[in-house]
Amino acid sequence: MPDLLQVTTTVGTKDVAERIAIELVERRLAACVQVSGPMRSTYRWQGQVESAEEWLCVAKSSRTCLPAIQRLLKDLHPYVVPELVATPIIDGSEMYLNWLAEQLDGE
């Protein structure tokens, strides 16, 4: 089983979030992507506290796919500094984790 990851990013519109989700799954860079929102994010940008509506993409993937995910987000993501956080999946349902690995292997 590959080193599984949960990769997150946020974007400003539902359309962009759904486009990223579809591209990741179609290219087998993620087994699935959950899109949720809208949500409100508060952050510091260029010395000012800002607040914006965003959509969250949570992708189940693997460490080997991460460089390709980074390239895809660089191409599709509209933000100057896009969020990309990869967290290891250290445990879970054996059946689900096997399914994730199979999707990423192209089986």
What's the end-to-end separation, in Å? 13 Å
Structure classification: alpha+beta
SSE succession = EHEEHEH
Compute the CA-based radius of gyration: 14 Å
Strand order, main sheet: write it out. 2-3-1-4
User: Please, how many domains?
Assistant: 1
Helix fraction bin: 25-40%
Q: Shape, please?
A: elongated
Short recap of the structure:
With 107 residues, the chain is an alpha+beta fold. It contains three helices and four strands, in the order E-H-E-E-H-E-H.
Description of the structure:
With 107 residues, the protein is of the alpha+beta class. The protein has a single domain, classed as Alpha-Beta Plaits (2-Layer Sandwich), CATH 3.30.70. Helix content is 34%, strand content 38%. It has a four-stranded antiparallel sheet.
What's the topology here?
Elements: E1 4-11, H1 14-26, E2 32-45, E3 48-62, H2 66-76, E4 85-88, H3 94-105
Antiparallel strand pairs: 1-3, 1-4, 2-3
Keywords:
107 residues, four-stranded antiparallel sheet, alpha+beta, Alpha-Beta Plaits, elongated
